[in-house]
Amino acid sequence: MTPIPPLVQSLYAAARPATQPTPDAGLDAATAFGRRFVETLQNAETTARQALTGGADPHALVTALAETELAVEAAVTIRDRVVEAYQEILRMPV
């Protein structure tokens, strides 16, 4: 059996925690996405109000609306993937 060099051992030890995620890692990511999504919508709403009253420039409004559109498209894509996964699970034989 060939001995494993110390450099490889240290690299493996550093990478190992990444291969063993914590049980709440997915939940934290989903929560962070939800918070960012809500913040994006709130920022767009605030910018739209300011633009209507003359407090924000049109460029800021267009940027906020584009960010909101991307956020909604991402949320819809994630929802579609979750529904697809659920349907795939339902099709599995028991």
Number of domains: 1
In terms of DSSP E residues, the strand content is under 5%
Largest sheet: none
Q: Give the CA-CA distance, first to last residue.
A: 44 Å
Order of helices and strands: HHH
Can you count the beta strands? 0
Overall SS class: mainly alpha
Please provide a brief summary of the model.
This protein has three helices and no strands. The protein is mainly α and 94 residues long. It has one domain (25-91).
Per-chain topology:
Blueprint: H1 6-19, H2 25-52, H3 58-91
Helix pairs in contact: 2-3
Properties at a glance:
single chain; mainly alpha; 94 residues; flat
What does this structure look like?
The chain has 94 residues and is mainly α. The protein has one domain (25-91). Helix content is 81%, strand content 0%. It has helices at residues 6-19, 25-52, 58-91. Helix 2 (25-52) runs antiparallel to helix 3 (58-91). The chain is flat, with a radius of gyration of 22 Å.
